[in-house]
Amino acid sequence: MSDVSPASAPVPGRTGATPAGTAPAGTPPNGTPPNGTVPAGATPAGTTVTDAAPTGAARGYAPGRTLPLAVEVVRQFKRRRTLVMFGLLLALPWILVIAFTFGAGSGQPGAALRISDLATEGGLNFAAFALSVSATFLLVVAVALFCGDTVSVEASWSSLRYLLAAPIPRDRLLRQKLIVALGYSAAAVICVPVTALLAGTLAFGWNDVRVPGTGETIAALDMLPRFAVVVGYAMVSQLVVASLAFLLSVGTDAPLGAVGGAVGLVIVSNILQAVEELGALREFLPTFWNTAWLDALAPQPQYDGMLKGVAVSVTYSVILIAFAFRRFRAKDVVS
Asked: What pLDDT band is residue 50 in, cutting at 50, 70 and 90?
């Protein structure tokens, strides 16, 4: 009988075979070859798997990279309601031009004191008229639409929970959607007067501005900076509608409910504004200072009313948006 066990016996036909459990000759006890290299698939002694991770491995979770603004802008732009609303806003000034063209012979030159009577006096007059007739309702609906279905529409599509499971932090999700919604709302407000200025200039010419009420004339170039202030104020005055629609969008799964609630606020505020018995309390209504921009078109512009309107709008907006974030943080998202 042989004294060599089967485990340590050499294998026939294999030169230099190493017995099982025995390191090759010249190999240090720690298992590393003399030249310091590590065989493929092996891990040096004292090295963990983490230390040996290959270069270019996947990076860790970065909350700041989730839901980029560009992605949300494209998503909202491709929606049908966005295209339809902007189509309507762009078409409104041209519709008004046609209406004034067919009714041009009904005016009474020399007695034009209302802003509607001055609409055909030039491009700036026409743009001011278009802004005045659209800011009371059409722009309100547009702003409520862009801000009222940002979150609620995701819930109605049962996609909100999948966005949060991406995972996107709740505050970041809400912030990104709010920024995009406010951006589209601002674009809607700017779109009407700018398009009206273009349409009015082509239809009625680039003339000096006649002031409503007194009929005084101001040079168009002098009025242009004031008109930019008017457009900016129109955007700020719509902040209350945007903030309330956004808050309602966070709390409901019905987009029409959020949009209708914001529009309803404007209607109720306008009704209360007509109640003179409320006295000075009416100044705290969100729509009381909406027409204060007309003071900027006077021969001696007044900005006191506009400053009060900005203060009221910003205060309401900050409070409503803060409630929206607080509500969304504690909301049980199941849709």
From this structure: very low
Distance between CA atoms of residues 66 and 175, nearest Å: 12
Taking phi over 0 as left and psi of -120 to 50 as alpha, with beta for the rest, 107 belongs to beta
Q: What Å distances lie between residue 294 and 4, 165, 234, 267, CA to CA?
A: 109, 49, 11, 21
CA 275 to chain centre: 35
Output the pTM of the full model: 0.76
The tokens for 243 are 């903030």
DSSP H/E element including 218: strand 217-218
Q: Comparing 55-64, 76-85, 185-194, which segment has the lowest mean pLDDT?
A: 55-64
Query: CA–CA separation, 125 vs 113, rounded Å?
Result: 12
CA distance 19 to 10: 7
Could you tell me the maximum CA-CA distance found in the chain, to the nearest angstrom?
133
Q: Give pLDDT, residue 109.
A: 52
What are the residue ranges of helices labelled H in 205-288?
Answer: 220-237, 239-251, 255-273
